[in-house]
Structures are given as C-alpha cells and as structure tokens.
C-alpha cells in the first residue's frame, strides 16, 4: 500500500511556503495547493522578467538562465514575485496633497497619482511645501546631498588686481646732450664709447673754437685791466658771453684763477650715467647744433604700461606698483604711479600710465618688456561676499540668502568692485546675513522648477473649467 506523505517546502531565505505536495511513495510528487506570492499574482500580467541571480538582465517573456532557472516576473508594483512585499510609506494624512509632479523634474503635473512612461510614480506635493514668501524650501537630505554651504556677509577691503604690460623708458629729465654752440674742431676724444658708464666731471673731449678763444681773451683782458670806470659791468658781460657759448664752469673758474686763456677747452660729463650716443671723432669739425654726446642717468627709470579702459577708475597717482621684468623672473621692482596720461588709445582702448622705478644696479634697460601689478586695495572695508555666491545672468545679479531651516531666499543685489575672490555688495544685503556659496545654481534651478510646476498646477484647473464650459 502506498503511503501518502504531505510535505511542505519552505524557502529558507524568506520563510514562505511555496506549496504543499503529496508523496506517492514511488518518487513522484503530486502538487496539492499553491500558496505565496506566485498564487496571489496569477491573475496579473508581468511587465517583464528579470534574471533570478540579480544580474542586470531582463526579458520581455518567460525564459531561463544558463543554469536552467526561470526568470522572475516583475509586475506593475515594481517587485518580482519571489521577493516579499515591502510596506509602502503612508501618505501624510495631516497635510493635503496639492498635486503630483513628474519624478524626473519635467514640467508635468497631475491632480491624481500616476506613473511616467518608465513606470516611476509621480511625487506628491503637499500643502505648505510651496512657500508664498518667495523662498525656496529644501529638505535636509537634499541640502546634504547637494553640498550647500553658506557664509555670513562681512566687511573687508577689496583688492582689485590690475595687470598691465609695458616697457622701460628713460626718464626724460635725466638725459643730457653735449652740443656745440659755435663752430668748433674736436682735438681729442677720451676713451669713452657708446654704453660706457661715466661720472659727472669725467673728461670726454677737447675742442678748439675761435669764438670761445676770442671770448676768453676778452674776459681775461677785462679782469686784468686797471682802468677805472665801468670795468665791473664790462667784465660781467664778457663772462656771460662764455656762459652763452656753453663753456664749462670749471674752465671759467680756472681762467679766473690763472689769468690764462686756454687754447683748447676740455669738455666733461655733465652727470652720472651711460653714454647713449657718441658722435665726436678726433679732428672733425662740429657745426653749431651738432650733438657730440648724449648721456642718460639710469638710476631712476620709467615703466610705461597700458591699462585697460575699464580699470581706469581704480587707479590713481601715488599707488604702489610691483613691476616684474621678463628678463629677471622672480625679482620684483617696486615703484609708484607718477602720472596717468589724459588720452585713450582708440585702437587698443587702453590708457598709458607712467610708473617711476628705482634702478640702482642698472639692470632695467630701455625698451625692456615688463609686467605691472597695480595694488588698488582700499583701506576702507566694504560689504563683500565670495564670487561664487553671485548668480549673474548679465542683466541681473542675485544671491541666495540662507534663512535657516532649509529656506533660501533669492535676492537681487547691486555689485561693485571685484578682487581677491570677493565682490563688493552696494545694495541688497545686510552685514551678518548668510549667503549660499556652494550649489547655489542647483537651488536656483529648484526654484525655477517649482515656480514652473506651480504655474502648471494653477493653470490646470482653469483649463479644466474652460473645457467643461465649452462642453455645456
């Protein structure tokens, strides 16, 4: 006689009975009853079938994996039949649902629950989530995920860094030339060439001039004459004639001391500097107006830089400037702005600025390229916020004020100077208020999205009412 045995098979992982079977005693089993989720979903049509091992593999119809296991059906509740049903979160009964919005952020709302084409549930929007005071409210989780950071508005000096290229030029006031005022002949030239550094009073050349010799003899005659009456006045006139011929003072003093008129006159360097030009040649004839030497003092030079027109309001005479020569990386020369030229270059839209620089070791040479950093820092602190906190659309500038408890208020502001990573706030904020410096563009996008959704939600009832009126 065959023994019938009832065996109940459990799924160890879930603890749920799959079904009861009768044993016929000959190795055959007879299914008696079906239980569990498979029986409860027998009358539903699966959306698709997924891999039983959890791999990202799906199928539109029933199939088996490479191990012979059946794919698990997935129904419209989003759970496969072999997984236990998870409790759905209960709706907040204390607040009224205004509408349901698209889970992907699209401007699509629904007055009743629905799913999008991907099977995702629309998100309910409760009464109170939409603030009427112009603020944006975010949940603590969203604030943490987006990395929202806020800093207080403080007063600080704004450092506007102005960079300008330029070149080194000689100080016009420190250039001397040696020019003959009468016809002369160069008798001898010292060992001085172009580029030689000379000292004031150092001999440069000896010249002979008949005009200078005649004036010297006349002056000696007046100062040695013993005649009475008008000698002093006549002597002063003779000396002035030598001065007008540009005879060096040392030569005139030597004549007054020795009472001897020199045949040739020694010409000396009028200042310390570098010989920029030497045109004197032994034996040459020099006509009036010929430049024989040009000497420049390079202990103080100019840096002529071109400042952009937009930065003109931030510079002033007397500001300190750090100049860096491209020939000497790592070295900084300090100077001050001496003059801002009153003309704008119509082609480059720049303004020429003169900076006076000390050049004691004469390493800065004329026409050398330099880069200037103009320090425009104002000692008076102003209300300022970080650059990253400003949302600039070109026609409108705004910041997000952190009101606390996840509320953020968009506020339009008027900006001033920028520099050092900060921007001056001239209107729109008060000291101590907190502004968002990180992820503010996400909050702004959330604000625009909520405003659009609210507009759709308000327009939907009106559209439904108009449709009903047309049907009547």
UniProtKB/TrEMBL annotation:
Biased composition (Basic and acidic residues): 63-80
Disordered: annotated segments: 59-96
Name of this protein: Cu(I)/Ag(I) efflux system membrane fusion protein
GO biological process: one example: plasma membrane copper ion transport
Record-level GO cellular component terms: membrane; outer membrane-bounded periplasmic space
Keyword line: Ion transport, Signal, Transport
Signal peptide (from-to): none
PANTHER family registered for this protein in UniProt: CATION EFFLUX SYSTEM PROTEIN CUSB
Database matches in Pfam families: Beta-barrel_RND_2, BSH_CusB, CzcB_C
Lineage: Bacteria, Pseudomonadati, Pseudomonadota, Alphaproteobacteria, Hyphomicrobiales
CusB-like barrel-sandwich hybrid domain: residues covered: 175-296
Domain (CusB-like beta-barrel) ranges: 301-376
Family membership noted in the UniProt record: Belongs to the membrane fusion protein (MFP) (TC 8.A.1) family.
GO molecular function: transition metal ion binding; transmembrane transporter activity
Residue stretches making up the CzcB-like C-terminal circularly permuted SH3-like domain: 383-443
């Amino acid at each position: 006689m065959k023994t019938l045995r009832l065996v109940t098979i459990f799924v160890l992982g879930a603890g749920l009975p799959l079904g009861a079977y009768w044993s016929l005693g000959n190795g055959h089993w007879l299914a008696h009853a079906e239980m569990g989720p498979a029986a409860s979903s027998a009358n539903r049509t699966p959306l698709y079938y997924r891999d039983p091992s959890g791999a990202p593999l799906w199928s539109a119809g029933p199939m088996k994996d490479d191990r012979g296991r059946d794919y698990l059906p997935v129904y419209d509740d989003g759970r496969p039949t072999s997984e236990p049903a998870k409790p759905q979160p209960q709706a907040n009964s204390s607040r009224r649902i205004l509408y349901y919005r698209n889970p992907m952020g699209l401007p699509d709302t629904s007055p009743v629950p629905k799913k999008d084409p991907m099977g995702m549930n629309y998100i309910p929007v409760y009464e109170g989530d939409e603030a009427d005071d112009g603020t944006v409210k975010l949940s603590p989780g969203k604030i943490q995920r987006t990395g929202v950071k806020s800093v207080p508005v403080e007063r600080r000096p704004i450092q506007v860094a102005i960079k300008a290229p330029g070149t080194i030029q000689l100080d016009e006031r420190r250039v001397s030339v040696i020019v003959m005022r009468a016809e002369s002949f160069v008798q001898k030239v010292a060992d001085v060439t172009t580029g030689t550094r000379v000292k004031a009073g150092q001999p440069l050349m000896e010249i002979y001039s008949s005009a200078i010799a005649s004036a010297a003899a006349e002056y000696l005659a007046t100062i040695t004459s013993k005649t009475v009456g008008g000698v002093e006045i006549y002597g002063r006139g003779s000396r002035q004639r030598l001065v007008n011929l540009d005879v060096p003072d040392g030569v005139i003093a030597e004549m007054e001391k020795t009472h001897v008129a020199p045949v040739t006159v020694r010409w000396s360097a009028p200042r310390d500097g570098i010989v920029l030009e030497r045109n004197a040649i032994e034996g040459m004839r020099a006509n009036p107006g010929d430049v024989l030497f040009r000497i420049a003092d390079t202990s103080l030079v100019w840096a002529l830089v071109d400042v952009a027109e937009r930065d003109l309001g931030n510079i002033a005479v007397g500001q300190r400037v750090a100049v860096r020569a491209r020939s000497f990386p790592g070295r900084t020369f300090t100077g001050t702005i001496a003059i801002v030229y009153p003309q704008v270059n119509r082609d480059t839209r720049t303004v020429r600025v003169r900076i006076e620089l000390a050049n004691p070791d004469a390493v800065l040479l004329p026409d050398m390229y330099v880069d200037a950093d103009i320090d425009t820092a104002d000692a008076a602190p102003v209300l300022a916020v970080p650059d990253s906190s400003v949302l600039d659309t070109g026609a409108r500038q705004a910041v997000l004020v952190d009101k606390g408890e996840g509320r953020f208020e968009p506020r339009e502001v008027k900006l001033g100077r920028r520099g050092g990573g900060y921007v001056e706030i001239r209107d729109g904020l008060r000291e101590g208020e907190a502004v968002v410096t990180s992820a503010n563009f996400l909050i702004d996008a959330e604000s625009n999205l909520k405003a659009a959704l609210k507009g759709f939600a308000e327009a939907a009832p009106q559209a439904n009412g108009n449709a009903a009126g047309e049907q009547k």
